[in-house]
Amino acid sequence: MANTLNSLKRLWSYLRLYKVGFFLAILCEVTATIINALFPVVVGLPTTRIAQNIAQKQAIDFDYIVKILLVITFMSFICNVCYFGSNALMSRVVQRSMRDLRRDISHKINRLPVAYFDTHQRGDILSRMTNDVDSLTNALQQSLLRIISAAIGMVSAIFMMFKINPKLAWLAMLMIPASIIISKVIVNKSQQYFKAQQAALGDLNSYVQENMTGFAVLKLFGREKDNYEKFKVTSHKLSEYGFKSSFISGLMMPLVQLTAYLVYIVVAVLGGFLVISKTITLGNLQAFIQYVWQLNQPMGQVTQLSAVIQGATASTKRIFEVLDESEEQELSDVSALADNIQGAVSFENVSFSYEPNKPLIENLNFDVTPGQMVAIVGPTGAGKTTLINLLMRFYDVTGGAIKIDGVDTKDMKREDVRSLFGMVLQDAWLYHDTIMENIRFGKLDATDYEVVDAAKAANVDHFIRTMPEGYKMKIDEEADNVSLGQKQLLTIARALLSDPKILILDEATSSVDTRLELLIQKAMQKVMQGRTSFVIAHRLSTIKEADLILVMDQGTIIEKGTHDQLLAQNGFYKKLYNSQFADGKE
């Protein structure tokens, strides 16, 4: 309960930015509800006058009845205008508030550490940003005004009932505690299923996103049936929780309506006796019975919206869980980035672990002078990519220091550290835009001439000009309309355009053919000229010219030196090298 109230308070922080429209919408809703509450009394006036005329054997007072009908028409017009105004204003407020919420989630995602994305499914994160916000938006637009209207309608109906006849009013009031008890029991039971439903929806989105990304591999290995069966299991969970949550919450309305019908029957019978005994007029009894329905209708509205409200409550908690995640923290007294970075890098007693009790890297030491090419080799899981993650401050070291030109990277802003690096990854990433804009991503203010110049240096200009529309050709969503090698060349052009001080090449040639490998190597050599560079490579033939080769195993540098020096040592590196060539030669 405390978490729900806290979520509502935080939700109000978004709505209050548009409080003028919010309170105007409420004012319109209140006005319409009060007018609606007066309808039974006004509608009962002609009935009472007609009954009096008949009882007194007088002519029907049509002038009076016409006047009342005109009043009813005017009240209906004002009531509907107010309802329209409240809905229009509230929709505007909700949409703008949710726009702000989406903006904050987007900003938050950009400030979260890489570790968050390593431990959370992308589909679930996407579900929180889209489905959960949509669920909250729909609930606010559908439910907020109805709840306010219901509360005011109930108070108005109760007031008017006591004004007509207190004894009958106390009898009618019995439906309120009965409805509250029924609602509380059902909500407590159904809320757990609504939470499970939102979590299952996140799992389903994750599964679909994962399978769509690897659809070609799925088809290749004929895993359609297996994946379909797994999808059925995941989908069945969502269906099961959705059914249970909807079924249980759906019991609320008929049970609440049942109490209303019982009260209605008792009031009608007792009211009939009171009319006969002339304790109340026939018109007032008619009005009172209408107020019983007006008291029941708001409770029915709330019970109808119960599923929407509970789903939105679960969604709100999931949204704020993301907003409450710890962000990348910066020191207050960070060092300014030097004007002329040379690119010297040193690891001094660096230790790191993803989990406190499982150290991965311990007391790692090495120095790189400006302009050196450093190759990092070793078996899978040796810590090569982790070392790069530490260098880029995707993770912070748990011990020791990484220094660039003698300055500890922890004493620098993360964005300053990362601005020094250019990266070419094994999995080349291109986004849905033109080739020109994909290359320009490395330097957003680059001119078209600079982009073309970088493409020429990366040996990709010729390929681009042979494509439809050349530099204006759009890369599709999965970048499937260009080959893997062409993607690599485009990312090299992007890195070259950014003019980084330090370059990182992570398995950049591991998935291409020999001809493209030579082309990519030539492009990389141009990029690496005059820059400190770190190269992670499985093909050891590509790093023979490296100034320094670091051989890693289980998070430790077990050998280091040049290619010839390491072969002469007749150690781990030589075994790796010989394993790639049958006779030990290239």
UniProtKB/TrEMBL annotation:
<feature type="transmembrane region" description="Helical">
    <location>
        <begin position="255"/>
        <end position="276"/>
    </location>
</feature>
<dbReference type="InterPro" id="IPR039421">
    <property type="entry name" value="Type_1_exporter"/>
</dbReference>
<dbReference type="GO" id="GO:0005524">
    <property type="term" value="F:ATP binding"/>
</dbReference>
<keyword id="KW-1133">Transmembrane helix</keyword>
<feature type="transmembrane region" description="Helical">
    <location>
        <begin position="64"/>
        <end position="89"/>
    </location>
</feature>
<dbReference type="GO" id="GO:0016887">
    <property type="term" value="F:ATP hydrolysis activity"/>
</dbReference>
<dbReference type="InterPro" id="IPR036640">
    <property type="entry name" value="ABC1_TM_sf"/>
</dbReference>
<dbReference type="GO" id="GO:0005886">
    <property type="term" value="C:plasma membrane"/>
</dbReference>
<dbReference type="InterPro" id="IPR027417">
    <property type="entry name" value="P-loop_NTPase"/>
</dbReference>
<feature type="domain" description="ABC transmembrane type-1">
    <location>
        <begin position="23"/>
        <end position="311"/>
    </location>
</feature>
<feature type="transmembrane region" description="Helical">
    <location>
        <begin position="144"/>
        <end position="162"/>
    </location>
</feature>
<keyword id="KW-1003">Cell membrane</keyword>
<keyword id="KW-0813">Transport</keyword>
<feature type="transmembrane region" description="Helical">
    <location>
        <begin position="168"/>
        <end position="187"/>
    </location>
</feature>
<keyword id="KW-0547">Nucleotide-binding</keyword>
<dbReference type="Pfam" id="PF00664">
    <property type="entry name" value="ABC_membrane"/>
</dbReference>
<feature type="transmembrane region" description="Helical">
    <location>
        <begin position="20"/>
        <end position="44"/>
    </location>
</feature>
<dbReference type="InterPro" id="IPR017871">
    <property type="entry name" value="ABC_transporter-like_CS"/>
</dbReference>
<feature type="domain" description="ABC transporter">
    <location>
        <begin position="345"/>
        <end position="579"/>
    </location>
</feature>
<dbReference type="GO" id="GO:0015421">
    <property type="term" value="F:ABC-type oligopeptide transporter activity"/>
</dbReference>
<dbReference type="InterPro" id="IPR011527">
    <property type="entry name" value="ABC1_TM_dom"/>
</dbReference>
<protein>
    <submittedName>
        <fullName>ABC transporter ATP-binding protein</fullName>
    </submittedName>
</protein>
<dbReference type="Pfam" id="PF00005">
    <property type="entry name" value="ABC_tran"/>
</dbReference>
<dbReference type="InterPro" id="IPR003439">
    <property type="entry name" value="ABC_transporter-like_ATP-bd"/>
</dbReference>
<keyword id="KW-0812">Transmembrane</keyword>
<dbReference type="InterPro" id="IPR003593">
    <property type="entry name" value="AAA+_ATPase"/>
</dbReference>
<keyword id="KW-0067">ATP-binding</keyword>
<keyword id="KW-0472">Membrane</keyword>
